[in-house]
Every structure is written in structure tokens, then in C-alpha cells.
Amino acid sequence: MSTAPLLNAIAVTDTTFRREGRSWVGKCLICNGPLRFDAGTGEGATVEHIRPRTLGGGNELPNLGVAHRRCNGEKGIRWDGRSPDDGLPPARLRDELPAPRQYGSTLSGCVGLVCVLALPALLFLPLDALAMPPWLARLVSLIGVGVAALGVWLVARVPAAPALRRADPLRPLTGDGRVPLREAPAERVNRMSFAAASLLTALCVVGYLLASAAARNRDVLGGTLLCAAAGSALVVYSVLAALRRLPPPALRWVRTPIRGGGGYPPVAFLLLGGVALVWALLVAFEAGYAWAAAGAALVILLGALAGPIGQRLPPR
To answer: Each residue of 72-105: pLDDT tens digit?
Structure first.
């Protein structure tokens, strides 16, 4: 098979590639950078053997990838020509590969870490020494918790590994290694779920306003309890919706994975619930209520157990 048909066959099985007119657009297998090649001539790319032919690699599609000509050449010089008998450990061989490029996800992860670290920094601010009114001090705390939640979301979006490639057309993956989603019109139960989640969000706002309006610390009990209860309910609902135990909230369209298993959580309601819960515990703890410390410990424990428990639940 000549180069152009072989490149086309590889691109069809590579989930990072998509067809745009006469060209294929995707990512280089080696540097993970953007790559475009002509579908008719193959110009702009080369065939990369994942296991080199000098080490027994063949021309089967699972062993082939699409790469820049320069990346392919550097890999051939720095890696493919070596063998285990050269006395170089695998880590040294990996270190000699072209350095991976940095993309927007890396930058968002760095911004997310800064946002997460903003909350501990806020806890050490001498708000009492600044003679702030109670409502302003609680607003600053809410902003700090919100920024930290945004940071957690940004860090969670950073891929832990390069996107997976899969040759099985019956089990495809998107360019970032996720299961593709399908869209369906929202049903009545989805709209009712959206209304219930919106009501819980409104209760969080009411609880915040009640706690912020309190002139003394001992008067924040009602507002913090309402905010913590509604926030906890939002978090639990979002997790159960992600596990497909409850219908996801939607007004017009519902997006679910094309195969079974867990879906993606309603991020907005999950973040709102988490911010409300953490803020309520923080304000109640500053007011001297002992139950806030116990609630914080329970939240940490449930957060640590959520992953293992979710993995053991039967798929739906």
C-alpha cells in the first residue's frame, strides 16, 4: 500500500483526526501537536511505526500512526536506532524524545492551582483587623470559596494522559479520550429535575442572604444551616445524575454517553452546591459552632470515599 492510502487508513481509525474537505486534521502521534495532510497525496505527514521495524514492528494498523516528518526523523535518530543492548535504560530513551508541547489545558491547570491556593491564603487574612462589616467579610469568604471551586474544576479538566487511540469503530473515543455523547430532546422528568435543582440553588441564595444579614455571629445559625442543607442536596443530586441514578437536569436537550456507564455531572449545579456547603461550614465554624467542624470532617471523608464507591456501583 502506498503512503497516501495508508495514511488515510490510519486517520480513519485515529480518533484525534477528522476530515476537512481534501485534508485530514488531527494531532501528531509523537509531539501531540496539530497536523494536517492532504488525503490525496499524503503531503504533510509521514507514517510512524510505533514499534520500529528494526525491532520487529509490522505494518498492522494498531502499530501505525501519523506524525510530522521532523518528529518522525528525530524519533528514528534518537530512539528507533537504539536497542536494549545499548545499555541505556528506558527512562533515558524516553527523556531523549522531543519534548511535548504545552497547550491551553496546561495553562488552565496552572490557573486552577493558583485559584485553589487562594482559599487557604484567604483564611489567614486578618479580616477582623480590617474592621469590615459582617456582610462584607462573609462576601469575601464566599468569593474565596467560589474561586477555589473554579480552580478545582480547571484542574479536573486537565487530561492526566494523552488522548487514547482506538482502532475499534464500534467503541469510538473523542479527541480527548472520552466516550462520545448523544443528544436527545429533554423530557418532562428532565425539566422537573432542572426545576428542583434551581429551587435548591434559590434556597442556597436565601441561606446566604440570611447569614449575611446577621449582625452577630450567633445569629448566622439559621442561614448557614439552610445553605449547607441545600448545598448538600445539590451535590448529592449532581453525583447521582452523573451516575445515571437520577435524570439529568435539562430544558431542551439531554446529553448522555453513547454507551452505558456514568455520564458527566451537571457542573454548574455541582459547583454551586459545593460552594454553598463549604461556605456555610466555614462561616459556622468562625461563629463558634462545633457542628461545622464535624460537618467538614464528614465532607472530607465522603469526598475520599466517593471515587471507590462510584467504581463499585453496577453500571446502568
So the answer is: 776 654 444 444 444 443 443 344 444 444 455 6
For 154-178, write each residue's pLDDT tens digit: 887 776 555 555 545 555 566 556 6
Rounded Cα distance, 144 and 150, in Å: 10
The domains of the chain are located at: 3-95, 102-158, 181-312
Beta strand 23-27 with 34-38: parallel, antiparallel or unpaired?
Answer: antiparallel
The pTM (predicted TM-score) of the whole model is: 0.61
- Residue 307 bridge partners (DSSP): none
Sheet hosting strand 23-27, strand order edge to edge: 18-20, 23-27, 34-38
Distance CA 3, CA 77 (A): 21
Distance set, CA 180 to CA 54, 112, 186, 256, 312 (Å): 37, 26, 18, 8, 23
Give the number of other Cβ atoms within 10 Å of residue 180's Cβ.
11
